């Protein structure tokens, strides 16, 4: 190695210190590469890498590659520079791939939304057509005679769809023109017509999905928000409960599920229309008729006191007043039996 004067020695030491510091930064940067790809800050870190790259290039340009520098350090610097360039190329490629992946995700989201809207619209149309067809008893009889397995599958769909619908719109109900609302209305209308026949309600209350659906009707009705769309939905729900109560097994299931809690909420709801109040009293009439189990009688009277029903007997509409009087008569008769 050539002889160096004092000034050149200081210059060499300073240069080597700069190189070693840069080398540490390079190693730290290389170690951080996997973490960069695991975060959403790829573009920010890519920009940082470009800045670091410029600084490294500047360092290499300023550093004199003379024979005074050891060949080992020179080779290591060249190797690190090559690795940095390779990593920079990889970052650019991965950044592009990530951007393309995000674009593909957005495209697929739009496609799924479009398909979901189409399927819901189709379901709403077919559901309402089937609802109207099921008004004819002979249609329902044919379904129950020849397609019981399909009716079971249908009840499973109704059970899942209704629960998801209420969970989604629990706080803000959609307008009645909403296709999802129309779809759910069609499904509940079909179940109402199926349960209108003795065979239909027997199938409904003995099918596992049907029983779960009835349980959801009892549980979710008080949770429905006040909105114009809930009136029609509650009407169908109460009609299904009334039909189920006309079946011995169904009545037992309603009483075990404390249907009186739901009926009490319906009678106490000041927003309930007279029609809703009448439907609620009809269900209560059916539930209290010939009721002779002390447990159920006690639960009913404790939840819906006779005094509350007596207030309804003074209603202006005669059908509401008469229904309330009938409920009181049944409850008083049941009380005498249990004494």
TrEMBL record:
It comes from Pseudoatta argentina. Gene3D superfamilies: Leucine-rich Repeat Variant (1.25.10.10). The keyword Coiled coil applies. Residues 77-111 form a coiled coil. The lineage of its organism: Eukaryota, Metazoa, Ecdysozoa, Arthropoda, Hexapoda. This is HSF2B protein. Keywords: Coiled coil. One of its GO terms (cellular component) is cytosol. The keyword Lyase does not apply.
């Amino acid at each position: 190695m050539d002889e160096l004067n004092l000034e050149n020695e200081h210059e060499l030491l300073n240069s080597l210190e700069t190189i070693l510091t840069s080398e540490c930064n390079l190693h730290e940067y290389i170690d951080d590469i996997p973490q960069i790809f695991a975060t959403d800050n790829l573009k920010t870190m890519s920009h940082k890498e470009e800045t670091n790259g410029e600084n490294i290039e500047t360092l290499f340009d300023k550093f004199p590659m003379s024979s005074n520098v050891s060949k080992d350090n020179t080779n290591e610097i060249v190797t690190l520079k090559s690795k940095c360039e390779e990593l920079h190329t990889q970052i650019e490629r991965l950044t592009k791939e990530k951007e393309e992946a995000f674009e593909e995700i957005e495209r697929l989201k739009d496609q799924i939304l479009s398909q979901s809207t189409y399927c819901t619209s189709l379901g709403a149309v077919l559901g309402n057509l089937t609802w109207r067809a099921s008004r004819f008893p002979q249609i329902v009889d044919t379904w129950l005679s020849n397609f019981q397995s399909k009716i079971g599958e249908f009840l499973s769909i109704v059970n899942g769809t209704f629960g998801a619908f209420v969970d989604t719109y629990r706080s803000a109900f959609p307008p009645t023109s909403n296709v999802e609302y129309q779809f759910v209305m069609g499904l509940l209308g079909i179940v109402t017509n199926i349960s209108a026949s003795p065979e239909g309600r027997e199938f409904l209350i003995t099918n596992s999905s049907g029983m779960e659906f009835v349980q959801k009707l009892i549980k979710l009705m008080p949770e429905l928000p006040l909105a114009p769309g809930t009136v029609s939905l509650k009407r169908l729900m109460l009609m299904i409960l009334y039909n189920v109560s006309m079946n011995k097994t169904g009545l037992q299931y309603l009483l075990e599920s404390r249907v009186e809690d739901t009926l009490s909420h319906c009678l106490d709801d000041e927003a309930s229309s007279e029609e809703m109040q009448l439907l609620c009293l009809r269900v209560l009439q059916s539930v209290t008729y010939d009721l002779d189990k002390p447990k159920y009688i006690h639960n009913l009277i404790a939840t819906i006191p006779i005094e509350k029903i007596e207030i309804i007997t003074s209603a202006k509409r005669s059908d509401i007043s008469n229904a309330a009087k009938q409920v009181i008569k049944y409850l008083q008769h049941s009380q005498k039996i249990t004494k």
